[in-house]
Structure formats: C-alpha cells, structure tokens
Amino acid sequence: MEKYKQVVIDAGKEMCKRSLTVGTWGNLSVRDLESGYIFLTPSGMNYETLVCDDIVVFDTDGNWVEGERKPSIEKDLHIMIYRERTDVNAIIHTHPLYSTVFCVTQQNIPPITEEFAQIVGNTVLCAEYALPGTIELAKNAVKALDKQNAVLLASHGTVCVGPNMEMAFKICDVVEKAAHILILSKGIGTPRIIPDEDIYAMRSS
Predict the structure, then answer these.
(1) Is the distance from CB of 57 to CB of 65 less than 8 angstroms?
(2) Residue 51: is its pLDDT beyond 90?
(3) Active site (annotated) includes residue 74
(4) Sequence-separated (6 or more) residues with CB below 8 Å from residue 167
(5) What class, spelled out in words, does domain 2-204 have in CATH?
(6) Contact 38/57 with Cβ under 8 angstroms?
(7) I want to staple 160 with a disulfide (CB 3.0 to 4.6 A). Which of 5, 31, 116, 171 is the partner?
(8) In what order do the strands lie in the sheet with 126-127?
(9) Using 50, 70 and 90 to split pLDDT, how confident is the model at 204?
C-alpha cells in the first residue's frame, strides 16, 4: 500500500508546484488495479507535509479500509468516477485559474487545439451545480464527464482523470492551457472548434 500512498503524496506536492490549487483545496486519488483500493488525500491538510499515514484508503464500494484521517470532502466523487470508468486509475481535482473562469460562468471548453483533441477528447462540459461534498455533485460530475478525460464543476473547479497520475497531470495542463488560449483568442476573433471527425481521426491514430 505504501507505493500508492507515496504516489498520492508526490502528486499533491506537484499539484501545488504547478499552481493548480492554493492552500489545502483540491484533492487527489489513485486506484490499485490489483486490489481495487482507492488511495485518497485527507481533508484540510497541507500537501507539503503529508506522510503515508495521512492517506485514507477505501474499496470501490466506499468502505473504509485504512487511515485515521478524515477523508477529502469529495470522497464520493472519486469513488463514483472509479465505479463508472474502468479506464481511470488516477483523479486530480484542482482549482486552477483559467479553467475555473469557465466553471464560474458555467461555460464548456471546446476542443480548440490538437493536443486537447488528442488526450482530452471532445468538449469538456461544465456539470450542473451542486454543493461541495454531496452525492448530487458526484452524480452531476460523472454524468458530464461521460467518456471525456475532464469535467468542470460549476462555481468550483476542474476534475481531470487518466489511466495513471502522470497522464492525469498532462490532462490538467492541457485543459488549463486550452482555457487560457480560449479566453485570449476570443479577444481577437472566433476560435476554430475542431470537428468531431478530426477528433476521432486523431484519437484513433
């Protein structure tokens, strides 16, 4: 278990290093394919000081397995995504600057760059609003996520998923970059949206 706990600890520090969140906001998790266990960050703790004993472990049914800390308020969001997406083994919930602009205006982020189309997929949707930490928020996020690799939480932040933590971070970076480009490009013209057939071609190659 220590291996997966350390992955979460290192990812928390990396999230702060990349300015994807501030303070203790946001949360991360990984899933062990063999056991199905989910390793999740605790609630309200500094990412820079986390140790293995701080990581909370659950099974895919949401049953507590190990850890004495209070789990992240978004525990159900993580568990529900893993249940619905067998291809996902890492989840990063961030509060970054540019994509959060779309969260607070409840706008989607369309595929405007080839890198976005290749690793994120089609339009990243903004899920219907629900209070933080609720089952309703988790359900809304899973519905809007569908087969994409990212979803926006209205008035809240961004959730990026991947087969591993490295890819989940790459998706975070690409979504945030696309959000920034979209905001800037609207100031000088109309951004070109990559059509579905081109997205399919790029993701199939």
Answers:
(1) yes
(2) yes
(3) yes
(4) 90, 119
(5) alpha beta
(6) yes
(7) 171
(8) 64-66, 56-58, 38-40, 27-31, 90-94, 157-162, 150-153, 126-127
(9) confident
Structure confidence at residue 156 (pLDDT)? 95
Q: Which residue in the list 48, 74, 128, 166 is annotated as catalytic?
A: 74
CA 114 to chain centre: 20
- The region, left, alpha or beta by phi > 0 then psi within -120 to 50, assigned to residue 29 is beta
Half-sphere exposure of 19 (CA within 13 A, CB side): 6
Token pair recorded at residue 7 = 């992955």
- Give me the residues paired with residue 151 across strands: 159
The full set of domain ranges for the chain reads 2-204
Rounded distance between C-alpha atoms, residue 174 and residue 180, angstroms? 10
pLDDT tens-digit series, residues 52-98 = 999 999 998 999 999 999 999 999 999 999 999 999 999 999 999 99
- pLDDT at res. 200: 86
